[in-house]
């Protein structure tokens, strides 16, 4: 039997980044059950869309979520990424991520 999720892989990757701004692509891939190439593509989409900012930290990347960005969905256009992540990610994890990025 096929399994499915309410959240897309893009949303699930964003949750991974919210939990750990220094998460590796291989860890995102493993969590989502996808290839590293697919994880790279998703994170690149999120960066290109302005939802995350990639920053080099030595040999690794760190990510900063842009919580003010609108979802872009016409049905829920007035909601922001930050509002959605507040529901999906524990508040103490989000506060720590915000203090690291800002």
Summarize the structure.
The chain is mainly α and 102 residues long.
Strand percentage: 5-15%
Strands side by side in the biggest sheet: 1-2
What coarse outline follows from CA principal-axis ratios?
Answer: globular
Order of H and E elements: HHHEEHH
Q: Number of DSSP strands? A: 2
Instruction: Tell me the major beta sheet.
Output: 2 strands, antiparallel
Low-confidence stretches: 98-102
Mean pLDDT across the residues is 84
CA-atom Rg in angstroms: 13 Å
What is the straight-line distance between the termini? Answer: 44 Å
How many H/I helices?
5
In terms of structural class, how would the helical and strand content be classed? Answer: mainly alpha
Description:
The chain has 102 residues and is mainly alpha-helical. The protein has five helices and two strands, in the order H-H-H-E-E-H-H. The protein has a two-stranded antiparallel sheet with strand order 1-2. The longest helix has 13 residues, at 36-48. The radius of gyration is 13 Å and the shape is globular. It starts with 8 loop residues before the first helix and ends with a helix.
């Amino acid at each position: 039997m096929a399994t499915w999720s309410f959240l897309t892989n893009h949303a699930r990757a964003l949750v991974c980044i919210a939990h750990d701004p220094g998460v590796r692509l291989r860890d995102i891939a493993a969590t989502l059950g996808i290839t590293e190439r697919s994880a790279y593509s998703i994170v690149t989409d999120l960066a290109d869309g302005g939802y995350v900012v990639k920053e080099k930290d030595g040999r690794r990347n760190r990510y900063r979520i842009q919580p003010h960005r609108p979802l872009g969905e016409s049905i829920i256009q007035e909601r922001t990424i930050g509002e959605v992540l507040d529901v999906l990610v524990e508040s103490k994890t989000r506060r720590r991520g915000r203090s690291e990025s800002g």
